[in-house]
Amino acid sequence: MSFSRYFKLVAIATALMIGYSPAAKKISSGKIRNASGPQALHEPKGKGGYIPAETGSKVTKKDRFKTGDESLIIIGLPDGSSLTINERTEAEMAELLNEDGINHNQVNIMNGKVNFDVQKQAKGSDFKFKTGTATAAIRGTAGTIGFTSLMKPIASLRNGSLDIHDSSLNTKYNVKGGQTAFSIGNEVVVLDLQSSGDAKFLDEIDKYITDPALANDKDALIKLVMKADSSYQDRKNQLKQNANCTITPLPDTVYTAKQKVKVQCSKGTMVGIHDKPVISNGDIVELDVEWASSLIGAKKIALQCYVDSISYFPCGELTTYYAGADDKESGDLANMHKPLTITTNSPAKVCDPASVTVEGTFDTSGTNATLYVIHGNKKSEDLIPYSANGKFSYTIQISDEKGNWNEDKVTVEYNSTEFETETAVLDLDIDKTCKGVNRIRPTIELQNYDSLSCNIFFTLDNLDQDYNYFTISTDNISGIESVVTKKITASRELEKGRHNYVFKVADLAGNSSQVSKTLGCYKTISDAYIRIDGKPVERLRVPPPPRNYSNKFHKELRFSVKLPGSNPVYIKSVKVTQNGKHLKTWNENEVSDIDFSLPVELTRGEDAEFVITVKLKSDQDELTAKKIYQVR
After folding, report:
1. Separation of alpha carbons 100 and 306, rounded Å
2. What is the pTM of this model?
3. Which end of the chain is more exposed for a tag (fewer CB within 10 A), N or C?
4. What whole-number distance in Å separates Cα of residue 433 and Cα of residue 22?
């Protein structure tokens, strides 16, 4: 008999032995692992009223929970999943059942927010959250779900995937790890945010999401949320550095449903795994983690570091595989293990260097075996010939240049005659603020310019699903930033007159392009006119000249063109004629002022008519004015 067949027979026999005990077959209760704060309340079966929640109490179907300020309740579920009822939250365990390793769980959230860290669900299992009109279904993920202060649904994932159906908006959408979803009016917005999954971060951005002044300004709202995300990450990274936690990895495969996790953190750090945190003295501390012994499968264990009794942040994660064999003395059962395992911690951070090394193990007993690493549409060569002692390692370069920086999962595929096809998935946390990852500079190109309509047309490119900030500065005064994620060709209306413009686009990593241009906008000016010094008709009484002197004499013709802001930039040309004959013309490159002065020659005993014609760049009707000198 092959190992593969024996493995399957033993697994079936073990499952039957476990299923024989009614307690192992059907589990319908969890446990309060931590109740903290003065207003942590529990209503068993939703009857009899709320009482103070107690650590260690059983949690069953229809139980309700309510927290006030500075209070929380952490609930451990049979498969090792956990729920955290955050402060100012009310929720109901509407369904809680595990039967033969299949989970059926549902949490109804009436208000507030619930954190969840859910183990990968077996086929046939379902885990749902209901928030008013929205239903979210998950397979295995970590994050936060609930309401904003205006009772609008909000969902935010640290990792995994969430499918949401909102009946009030008649829409279905998916939220992935590193994303946060909320509604603006009737539109659902899904943003890539580093702080996704953190309830405290959602409380911080609530003021923007619920601000009526931003309800119709999506770009401004997104900009504020992105800046809050960056600021929050800086604070959290500092906390992680201060905690300085190191976790001792668990074996790739474990055979008991209760494990001790060894953690070493800085002195004074409060650390825990779903339970009430303990204070580290700087030495190694041991934390217990457990799940129902019948629930065979992959397990993830999240370590939490606490700022205070109710505020915490993720500071580490372990993964292992529970084989379900409590009797390690049985040689064959002790050999129970997964044919393929990824040992690289998930999610793997990609920043500097801009690469991820996928490491793991595979069963060397398989014949005709192949092993491939797949990322996006790229597939490695067979790694079996390059892997010794059942261990593999493969490095993938990731960047926008490689065209793979939006692919957040790596799949390892192992094929053999005995084990058929086995796959394992590594989640990636690709940081687009890192210059090694975000290498392509966004570009901006001015397409054409229409001075009459005052529109400038431009194209933004090389954006590749990155968050890019686009601004137009006018005479060194910055305009409002717009967030752009994909190639666009658009136009902007210019200000009246001639101004210096700077068009700039920059991505999250600081790569930028800019174009500087001096442009004019010359719309029709309704109140422009020519003002000539003196009266329109002037009678000049000039004595006759002495004998033998000329009858001609000189005078100064003065006039000005009245324009907005007294700006001569609107003038295209100025022309003066005398008695129908051309006298003087100023073209636009000769015009530097709105005031004009022209020496003119008059003749005694004759009238002189001067006509001034001003053409404006707006191509509106010409401005004209007349001046007549009657010389007597």
Report:
1. 35
2. 0.52
3. N
4. 53
